[in-house]
Amino acid sequence: MPPPNLSPQDTAKWVVLLVVALLQYIVLGVGLYVFPQYCKEDMHTSALSGRAWLNELLVGHPKRIYIALGMRRHVFLALVLQIRALGYMESQQSRLNLDESLAIFLYTCVTGLAIDHVAERFQHSHTTISEHFRKILDILSGPEFYSKYVQLPDANAPPPSAIRNNPKWWPYFQNVLGAMDEDLHSARNRKGGVTQNCLAVVSFNMRFLFFTSGWDGCAADASMYSAARLRDLPIPEGKSYLADAGFGICEALLVPYRQTRYHLAEWARAQLRPANYKELYNLRHASARNVVERIFGVIKHRWTILTRPPHYDMKVQAKIPSALVALHNFILEHDEEDIDRWILDEGAEDNLRGARRAQEIDFGRLSTTGRVSAAEKERAEKTRDEIAKAMWEDYQEYLDTRMDVDNNYYGDIQPEALD
User: Fold this and answer.
1) Do 189 and 273 sit in the same domain of this protein?
2) So what's the pLDDT on residue 114?
3) Which of 22-36, 140-154, 234-248: highest mean pLDDT?
4) Is residue 270 part of a domain?
5) What's the pTM?
6) What kind and span of H or E run contains 185?
7) Could you tell me if 253 and 241 are in contact, meaning their C-beta atoms sit under 8 angstroms apart?
8) End position of a domain, from candidates 111, 141, 171
9) Which residue, 30, 53, 200, 283, has fewest beta-carbon neighbours within 10 Å?
10) In the beta sheet, which residues pair with residue 186?
């Protein structure tokens, strides 16, 4: 309202000034909104572009590229060549070469950083970073690359060398192809966070043989195993995998005895020798199946993105573990010594997984699903008893002929137990 006691002329002037002031504010507001749309200021203007930084990594100290991208230089270059060999080339419209796209994906997985941090590192927009991350993810998780490097063993393949060369496992586990377990990894949904479950089959030389992910975090071991067996996890007759008791007993899986000391940590606390054939079997079963824990520890320490969920939709996040599993096998195929860095690191024993669920709650779950007949369960139990009793007989003979137990007898799991 205009001030009181103004003349008609002064009132008219006051109204004009008010209208002019309002127009000025409107013009200023429109200008502040429109100016950034048409007169944008470049954000990524650093002289050290993503291309320049990658060139530094390729010609610089060998440890730099390993720290930044999770692999040595020759492995990175071999991966670029492999992707190109599969028919994936840079498009004419793309400003990025394939090696820079791959570097964006690897850097994101190694660091677990959000898109804006990766965009700052490579001096590209958020859209560009997301586009090229998804591009490489689709390639590595796709059937052409994944199926080439993640394969189940042939039915006629000889027993694994790790089994043949270990007197604690040979000949008892001569028909064992590898080990199986589930694992949780972090993901992010619109509500903040969620866990996804995966099922992995691994070899004794630290390679993945089979992998499936995208299950809800509370999915049971036996449920994932049953679904995998129906879909794409064939196990040759007479062969088996080591698994924990949550999978239940069947002819394709060797599981430990229930209500008997099992985990290596339990043996470490007890500092006792096995007292019967069941304890001896469980101890050796645990030491052999420990390869699963070790391989999960390796990939989680190498790829931080598995423990720090990214800001991508759930369909994209479900592909990430499969891509990194295939990448793990690719790295070891081209750099066998790479795994030594992680195996010798005490931290590679997967301490990121948190407290494990109690094993007792899942005992026999598979045998109650109706997929395992009573006859098969009886045969599986008989096979396990025969293996365990053969172990025990040989162990007793060993103790009789060598009363002073060699402290190195149990090698890699000392001082957890003296077997």
Assistant:
1) yes
2) 92
3) 140-154
4) yes
5) 0.78
6) strand 176-187
7) yes
8) 141
9) 30
10) 195
